């Protein structure tokens, strides 16, 4: 079955990006000349996904406004003869069928996902974390969708990280079954050094079968009264099995100030508009360090 729906949880407070995130949703912080969430939506579209639900919280109306029509702006661009920019603005509002739901209280990623149960129905669906921008020739979520179509099991995007990072994310018990495909039998959230199965962690992308919702309803809320998606995926892996895809592409953690800055610099270097100017600036700056 083709994956045609995606859920983007974007209801978090963005505390790691304060003070900027106090006034601007962290998902709207720019990566060069586009807000982070636009990269995530475009990744979905480039993977053939047609229906997207973005989970928001109070104060994040700017996300909805970004993907909505702005008739005054369009008329201004048309009057000024800025045809390419006008086309880009119109394409932005018609890329996919985007709907929104508000998470009334931030009680973990699993709780946020429950808001999308009616939207996804009985279909498999992709989950793209709002903090993670992944840029590459082959969309990361498309790589997971292909694995789902091949194996019919829930799929997670994984990468090998440092032991220090594993303890911040999660660790998986896995076995390689193909070039970049793994069979996952167990997951532990934020392990201690003695609990680490491997240095592979889930990073920002999943394709889940609909039974995840039933598992979530039977998963207890944990620390800070939050429902962790990883806990539910652990149960799913143990009962049904799960596939891990070591995806390609450059990942940026938009909740990390250094990573977010790196994303803008590297996208600027890929831009035909300013790449030469930026490269020269970096070279000159390097000489002063």
Secondary structure layout plus pairing:
Blueprint: E1 5-9, H1 20-23, E2 30-31, E3 34-35, H2 36-46, E4 51-56, H3 61-66, H4 71-79, H5 83-92, E5 97-102, H6 109-114, H7 117-120, E6 125-128, E7 132-135, H8 140-151, E8 155-160, H9 163-166, E9 170-176, E10 181-189, E11 200-208, H10 212-217, H11 229-240, E12 242-246, E13 250-253, H12 257-270, H13 275-286
Parallel strand pairs: 1-4, 1-6, 4-5, 8-12
Antiparallel strand pairs: 2-3, 6-11, 7-13, 8-11, 9-10, 10-12
Helix pairs in contact: 12-13
**Strand ordering within the main sheet:** 5-4-1-6-11-8-12-10-9
Unreliable runs: none
Q: Measure the end-to-end span.
A: 54 Å
Number of helices: 13
Described by the principal axes of the CA atoms, the overall outline is globular
Mean pLDDT: 92
The oligomeric state of the chains shown is single chain
Structural class: alpha/beta
Order of helices and strands: EHEEHEHHHEHHEEHEHEEEHHEEHH
Count the E strands. Answer: 13
Measured as a percent range, the helix fraction is 25-40%
Largest sheet: 9 strands, mixed
Radius of gyration: 20 Å
Percent strand equals 15-25%
Tell me briefly what this model is:
With 289 residues, the protein is α/β, with parallel strands linked by helices.
Model description:
By secondary structure, this protein is of the alpha/beta class. It is built from 13 helices and 13 strands. The strands form three sheets. A nine-stranded mixed β-sheet has the order 5-4-1-6-11-8-12-10-9. It has a two-stranded antiparallel ribbon with strand order 2-3. The chain has a two-stranded antiparallel sheet with strand order 7-13. Strand 9 (170-176) and strand 10 (181-189) form a beta hairpin. The longest helix is centred in the C-terminal third of the chain and has 14 residues, at 257-270. The radius of gyration is 20 Å and the shape is globular. The model has no long low-confidence stretch (mean pLDDT 92).
